[in-house]
Design brief:
With 371 residues, this protein is an alpha/beta fold. Helices cover 31% and strands 24% of the residues.
Length: 371
């Protein structure tokens, strides 16, 4: 999966600046237009204000009046880190909204775009346009240390996973084997004891015949992100479930799948030839996120869970219901972002904090619910 997606010359994500959208293979919330970024900016501005207030408390000073326009530029900068930033479209939408709605916040932002694809990084300056003045860094890696907000929109589902299957004799792992110029899957012993330990930690009972994916990389990523964040927030937006649902009869066949031209996996050619093996490097490969393990790993690094909810309720808390819907295109975009059964309910939002207490957040003000 890592080779197919991220090989520097042949990988699916490495070879193009953008893979989503009408001309791509799948649609994200960013693809429906700037509205998603505009709503997200409201939450980010609030988080920046919370950080400013914490700085005042730590320094022993308090302000009786809110800062006048641009006055917050004299406050401490706030790092905005976007992981899996691609060509920077989401950050561009956020920055344009901030420049228009809250110039004081805009001038505090130091933007860091984290993206492994050299092709995508090369396209970021063009995508950002004038807002490129806020760009502090563009790199394949997270900043070593930052204070502000980290956004990861549809990152974890594309991290390489281990696929496992339970047999009467115990847990087995699914491997990819090259034979006669084609790829097929074979079963073998687990490549690492961490796979069994992962399920044991969750106290999950996997019945014989059930398959599932274990994303050790997601756990490693959130722990590294938690260590890099000195103070602030992490917002993870992705599709997935709590572990009790992910590792249950509901998903007993596993969730590993592939997308091409907006179509998910077709039928298997045979028991050892799943669709995600076809056209390696030409298709997206993805698996649902285990939010239980991601949250536990974050909390082990000293972060606090501030909210876990459907994207619908998160955006409603940010004022989606009263947002200026404008023309038909924006009304359709709003519907796409909120519609149950689509992006609104399949995508979950996990909000974490570090060193900021447990403040009430606009994104959690409508309803904190996971369907």
């Amino acid at each position: 999966m890592e080779l197919a997606l991220y090989h520097p010359e042949l990988g699916y994500y490495a070879r193009a600046a953008q893979r989503s959208g009408r001309a791509g293979d799948f649609v994200t919330s960013v693809d429906v237009g700037p509205l998603f970024g505009e709503l997200l900016e409201i939450q980010l501005a609030e988080m920046a204000a919370i950080l400013a207030a914490r700085h005042e408390e730590d320094s022993g000073t308090t302000s009786q009046q809110p800062p006048a326009p641009y006055a917050a530029a004299s406050l401490s900068p706030v790092d905005l880190v976007e992981a899996a930033a691609g060509n920077g479209r989401l950050s561009a939408d956020i920055l344009r909204a901030a420049r228009h709605r809250d110039p004081a916040f805009y001038h505090r932002i130091r933007l860091h775009l984290v993206e492994p694809s050299a092709a995508a990084r090369a396209a970021q300056a063009r995508t950002l346009g004038e807002e490129g003045e806020r760009l502090e860094s563009s790199s394949p890696d997270l900043p070593v240390s930052f204070e502000g907000v980290l956004i990861a929109n549809e990152l974890l589902d594309a991290l390489p996973v281990h696929q496992v299957v339970m047999r009467p004799e115990g847990l087995r792992e699914i491997y990819v084997h090259a034979s006669g110029g084609s790829l097929r899957t074979i079963e073998g012993p687990p490549s690492t004891p961490a796979l069994g330990a992962y399920l044991d930690r969750l106290e999950m009972i996997i019945e014989p015949g059930w398959r599932g994916e274990i994303n050790l990389r997601a756990v490693e990523w959130i722990r590294a992100a938690g260590r890099s964040l000195s103070k602030g927030f992490i917002i993870i937006i992705d599709y997935g479930h709590e572990a009790r649902e992910l590792y249950s009869v509901t998903h007993a066949g596993g969730t590993l799948t592939t997308f091409t031209r907006h179509t998910s996996a077709g039928p298997e050619r045979s028991a050892d030839a799943p669709p995600w093996l076809e056209d390696a490097g030409e298709r997206d490969i993805t698996a649902h996120v285990d939010f239980t393990s991601v949250r536990a790993a974050a909390e082990a690094e000293g972060l606090t869970t501030l909210g876990f909810l459907d994207q619908t309720y998160f955006l409603m808390g940010l004022g989606a219901a009263t947002a200026d819907a404008g023309d038909l295109k924006r009304r359709l975009a709003l519907k796409t972002l909120l519609m149950p059964g689509g992006l609104g309910s399949t995508h979950k939002v996990l909000i974490l904090g570090k060193g900021v207490g447990t403040p009430p957040l606009a994104g959690c003000s409508f309803r904190v619910r996971v369907t």
